[in-house]
Amino acid sequence: MSVSESLREVAEAWRADDPDPVTSQEVTALLAEGDAAALHDRFDRGLEFGTAGLRGLLGAGPNRMNRKVVIRATAGLCAYVLATTPDAKERGVCIGFDGRRMSREFAADAAAVCNALGLPVRTFDHVVPTPVLGYACLVTKAAAGIMVTASHNPPAYNGYKVFAGNGAQIIPPADEGIAAAIDALGGLDTIGRMDADAAREAGLLSLFDETLERRYLDGVRSLMIHPGLPRDLSIAYTALHGVGDRLARKALDEAGFSKVHSVAEQAEPDGAFPTVEFPNPEEKGAMDLVLALGREVGADLVLANDPDADRLAVAVRDDDGGYVQLTGNDVGCLLGHYLLDQGPAGDQRLVINTIVSSPMLGSIATAHRAHFEQVLTGFKWIANTALRLEGEGPSRFVFGYEEALGYTVGSLVRDKDGIGTAVVVADMAAWCRSQGRSLLDELELAWRRYGMYLSRQVSRVLPGADGAAQIADIMARVRTSPPTSLGAFAVTAFMDLSTGVRRAADGAETPLGLPPGDVLAMEVEGGHRVMLRPSGTEPKIKFYFDARVDMTDNETADAARARGDALLDELVTGLAAVTDPG
Question: CB-based contacts of 73: which residues, under 8 Å, 6+ apart?
Fold first, then answer.
């Protein structure tokens, strides 16, 4: 395929005001090679600014993460903030960055744009975890926050995450307003950038000192429920080449956990991620080194942060000396149980998880007379819902989680916090040991008390235009003709988030109270649940299954799990009969 004249003109126009010689040269090389496919991929469309901000492959063009995209995004963000926040120039913007390629440069560009528009910037001279930037936004009452990170994505990615003036991630309509402001911009020559030295001289650019970190660590210590118990646990930890090592180990040490062993090969920030292909602790092989270290030192507990330290993975030593990696739902429900059962009572306690996370948290909340909410997928909805409910009445947010290893305890950070949660998990493990139990024992006790909830996710990859049409057809068929049964199980209620209605089997309708979304869910007799939704970032449709099993007195956890797995198998087969073509 040859490079058309129109494509060449678009690429050359982009290159003409690209401030980065590296990406400018990338365009020059692609044009010289006549690589039309690569040019179309970079220039036919742009990265969409959404509620997660921006995220994409590093490289040239509007469909990549690069300095020009970041400068334009920041100019649009500033325009939106200045138009909607009267005191924005007093409150300013907080900016942080992780250890990925170009993160420091993107953060500097963002600061320069903010400063040129008269917005003061507080930033860092070193990499920081995302929860620290979120904490900074909250305590400084910043008008907005920018964190340059691609979280747990592969090495070739970077991203741009935006916090609102309430310290949580942005939600609609802010994302739409920022996207519109970006689209309204002219060329890069119309966007001012202030030199850092001039900005410092004008009082518009300042660095956080150690006081911020000190306050954050003090806040993390306050999250513990039983700080006075013995801290003789041995812990193996990894930062997965991210930015969490120093602060996570310091937080654990100050909480009394001095036996922390860190994976040396993964301790320092390295955007190349040389020992892992995919730096997501959920991915197979990502925790191999820390599990090996755990076996070497006999660790009781294994902890892993993702590269920006907002997520946490947990593995526990079993009776045979091996390790069991807990799922996000396991950790979330254990924390919900621990914080409600052992934490302070009083007020109306509030716990929240997402609609694709385990309903078990709701059973835990009911047993403790706490209020439970489920929200749309994405931690932004947890934080913003907590803020709204706390503002509406005498309620206190205790805990929130999403099944993809994201948790936050209390209101220290209005976002996922893998460091604060690591300390609370260690505190919980120490309490369990004081009771003669492990975290695995405590999870079994929770299953016996609240019901054993097992979850499974199945994805069907359908690439290309044909695949997108198939996904749309599946959603349309289920939406217009909801099944009355899945295999041998009756569907007791059907929920369509696009209309916001829950329809019971008897026809009674009630509002869901959730923002609209392309999600369908079915409540199934026996306390089970099935859900389906298209992926927002990949060419796939995702199916979520939750089964509930009541354990009998003499039944082992393995036997109950086998019954639950059989139920999940039936639900998977039942949904496949409804969604498979023909």
Answer: 49, 53, 54, 160, 178, 182
Residue type, 510: T
Question: Helix, strand, or coil here: 175?
Answer: helix
C-beta separation of 220 from 419 below 8 A: yes
- Report residue 37 CA to chain centroid gap: 32
**522 lies in a domain?**
yes
pLDDT in tens, 366-422: 999 999 999 998 899 999 999 999 999 889 999 999 999 999 999 999 999 999 999
The Cα 161–Cα 50 span in angstroms is 10
Q: Bridge partners of 311?
A: 406
Q: How many other C-beta atoms can be found within 10 angstroms of the C-beta atom of residue 123?
A: 23
Annotated catalytic sites, by residue?
151
- For 130-141, b/e burial (b = at least 16 CB within 10 A) is bbbbbbbbbebe
Give the separation between CA 471 and CA 97, rounded to whole angstroms: 36
**Integer distance in angstroms from the first to the last C-alpha of the chain?**
37
**92 and 199 housed in the same domain:** yes
Written as six digits, the tokens of 156 are: 């070739």
Q: Which of 17, 69, 19, 21 is nearest to 42 (CA)?
A: 69
| pLDDT tens column, 425-468 | 999 999 999 999 999 999 999 999 999 999 999 998 888 888 88
- DSSP designation for 505: T
Domain that holds residue 408: 338-415+427-450
CATH of the domain at 517: 3.30.310
